[in-house]
Amino acid sequence: MNFLTCCVDTTRSPFSLLGSIRTATKRAGGTVHNHGGSPGKRLGIKKFSDQAVIPGNIIVRQRGTLFHPGQHVKIGRDHTIYATAPGFVRFYKEKWMRGTRRFVGVVLERGDILPRDEAGSGRSRYFGLVNLSENLQKPVAAHAN
């Protein structure tokens, strides 16, 4: 065996017939158009506890039901919780099956708590209305002139 055939046999590789292989020094990056990202959806709590609301005010914008509707609120098609009666927002937790759920409700007075014991204390609203006769029975202070 001569020296030339010995060297050719030892350097034989699957790519030796094709010649040299050039490998990339940078990863291939394609061009991307119109992918600058989308704006944020402004989700979250819009009215916090003890803030006054009127019917139609959005209380929580959410994806899925992180908060569930309680008294005097409803849930929209996109899980937005909004007020259906005037009052003050209250957040509370309730036992639900094996865990707890977070609820949002609206109460008439700022200091009221939810869930409300309607059997013991009676209803605060009838047909979504407020009993005005309670306010009329309170004495009105006369002006000192």
From TrEMBL:
Annotated InterPro entries: Ribosomal_bL27 (IPR001684), Ribosomal_bL27_CS (IPR018261)
Keywords: Ribonucleoprotein, Ribosomal protein
GO cellular component: mitochondrial large ribosomal subunit
A single GO molecular function term of this UniProt record: structural constituent of ribosome
PANTHER family for this protein: LARGE RIBOSOMAL SUBUNIT PROTEIN BL27M, RIBOSOMAL PROTEIN L27
Family as reported in the entry's similarity comment: Belongs to the bacterial ribosomal protein bL27 family.
UniProt-recorded name of the protein: Large ribosomal subunit protein bL27m
Lineage: Eukaryota, Fungi, Dikarya, Basidiomycota, Agaricomycotina
